[in-house]
Amino acid sequence: MKGSLRNRLLIALAVALTALYGVIGLPTSLQDIYDHLEEKVTLGLDLKGGVHLILQVQVQEALRAEADRTIRRLQDELGDLPVPLTPDSITRNNPETIEQADDIMITVEGVPAERASDFRNTVEQYFPNWLPSSRSSAVWVLRMRPSSLALLKNDTVTQTIATVENRVNSLGLTEPTIQQHGRADAEYEVLVQLPGLSDPA
Q1: 78 plus 25 within the same structural domain
Q2: Is residue 15 in some structural domain?
Q3: Pick from 115, 130, 145: which residue ends a domain?
Q4: In this structure, what CATH number is given to the domain that contains residue 130?
Q5: Domain annotation covers residue 152
Q6: Are the CB atoms for 178 and 191 separated by under 8 Å?
Q7: Angle between helices 116-126 and 59-79 (to 10 degrees)
Q8: How many whole angstroms separate alpha carbon 200 and alpha carbon 198?
Q9: What is the pLDDT of residues 29-56, one digit of tens each?
């Protein structure tokens, strides 16, 4: 019985030494052990220290940019109807916060009543991401469809993650964490963890 226990202990010791050798090699000094451990063993933020950031993605800026692109295209398309509009006839509102982002809206003023049907057909054909509605006989409002809003905001977060990854990878850091944080449909945040880095700039 004692011999069996001794054999088990010897086997366990041999396995432990083999595993230790695989991690730190054959050290010649205590400093060698520290160097090998630092090279072979990956430490997380809790042990190694580093940077922990939560970035807020300003999705309202992406929606404003999309509205601006739509306005430029509208000016081109409506010029072919023809609908007698000036550059000042098509404007957008200015949502400044993430909470206001879904309120993005384009206003078109001066659409002649006899061209209302042409205007609606043009928007529905060439701008399927926008829903047209008449506010009065000559004023129309375009609001982005909910599905298009969600897709654009999610794409903006995905592009932000890719941009951050490219920058972090250029630093040569070991195993950074860059991923979406919080509720995907409401918070639009990116978690960035950079072990071993003390200056996030």
Answers
A1: no
A2: yes
A3: 145
A4: 3.90.1070
A5: no
A6: yes
A7: 130
A8: 6
A9: 656 655 655 555 555 555 456 778 888 9
Q: State how many domains the chain has.
A: 2
Spell out the long-range contacts of 132-136 with Cβ–Cβ below 8 A and sequence spacing 24 or more. 135/107
Average pLDDT over all residues of the chain: 80
pTM for the structure as a whole: 0.70
Which stretches of 42-145 are DSSP H helices?
45-48, 59-79, 116-126
For 67, the domain range is 61-145
- 49 Cβ contact list (under 8 Å, min separation 6): 195, 196, 198
In the structure encoding, which two tokens stand for residue 182, read together? 């919080």
**Token pair listed for 40:** 């072979």
Bridge pairing between strands 90-92 and 105-109 = antiparallel
The pLDDT of residue 47 is 45
